[in-house]
Amino acid sequence: MKKVLIALDYDPTAEKVAETGYALAKTMNADVILMHVISNMEYYTSTVYTPVMGYGDFGNAGLTKVYSADDLKKETQNYLDKSKEHLGDDSIQTIIAEGESADAILSVAEEIRADVIVMGSHSRRWLDKILVGSVTEKVLHKTKIPLFVIPTRG
């Protein structure tokens, strides 16, 4: 195992996913790649949840956050850089992908020839899983690359 791809969302539990995936990679002396997929601009305009910061924004209820595509990419890179800094390893690579999350993760994993994909699973509602399905579940069903799933119930 030479490359570990760690897919992060903006959920507050992403720190646990990054730390656990990083520890796994280091036990195998593998390179680490952190990635995030920008999939739906509407998701990033919520006043209830600020995905870029990873916490609810209750102080500005009623205001809508609007990110341009360029601003969102800059914020996402900042998020990945902070995650990299938290892990304390300058050799970590970062990737920002766009598109449907599961497909983008699988595409990047194949492109970089990842040996394992690390993801968190934090489905909170059974109805969401039935109606929408989780990104982790979609990756699990489509991947030919080993998948390390970290339960993160927030």
UniProtKB/TrEMBL annotation:
Cytoplasm found in the keyword field: yes
Q: Which UniProt keywords apply?
A: Cytoplasm
The chain's coiled-coil residues are: none
- Cellular location(s): Cytoplasm
Q: Name one Pfam family in it.
A: Usp
Q: Which GO terms describe its cellular component?
A: cytoplasm
Residues spanning the signal sequence: none
UspA domain span: 1-151
Report the family membership. Belongs to the universal stress protein A family.
Protein name in UniProt: Universal stress protein
- Please tell me the species this chain comes from: Acetobacteroides hydrogenigenes
